[in-house]
Amino acid sequence: MVSMNGKGLWAPLLGDELLRRIARLRLVITDVDGVLTDGGIFFSETGEALKRFSVRDGMGVERLRQQGIETAFLTRESSAIVARRAEKLAIRHCHLGVADKKAFLPRLLEEAGVDDDEIAYIGDDVNDEEIMGTVAERGLIGAPLDAVPSVLRRAHYRCALPGGCGAFRDFAEWILDLKTQSQVQQPSTARQKEVR
Prior knowledge:
Blueprint: E1 2-4, E2 7-9, H1 15-24, E3 27-30, E4 42-44, E5 47-50, H2 55-66, E6 70-74, H3 80-88, E7 93-95, H4 101-112, E8 119-122, H5 129-136, E9 140-143, H6 149-154, E10 157-158, H7 167-195
Parallel strand pairs: 3-6, 3-8, 6-7, 8-9, 9-10
Antiparallel strand pairs: 1-2, 4-5
Helix pairs in contact: 1-7, 2-7, 4-5
């Protein structure tokens, strides 16, 4: 980690290290409000009424799944709407009402059967910074276009789209594009070893 003005700033990943991390990736963990939604809530006198999700993000979940990469929801909010969205997308790991995401991470990794170098995380606000710092050490992190500045500065990938408008899909496509590149490069590395 590089330090800038007393605040942590993760160094960008370059070439081979980025492709190594992508090649190992098995789980993308996403915050919900501000990533899968625009952060807004239609709130009535009876409580939370509606949240808007992008179908493009849902396709991102499916495209990752087709490549053997699962998605997990991890959010501070306890929302029946989010639970229903997870059910619709066949998300096996949906954790609601998690106040300390960093402390919860080991439990999620164990549940999903993955190591800390096989994950990515996308978040948008200051409550995501601690888990993002942990994931950044060995995994990948992303942020929607409209994430708070401190999160954007730390992301390995800054999405071209805001939360709730395809940011998750953009992150998924970045991962899938890099995964293709890593698969293309692996056979050439194997051939070089055979020649030696």
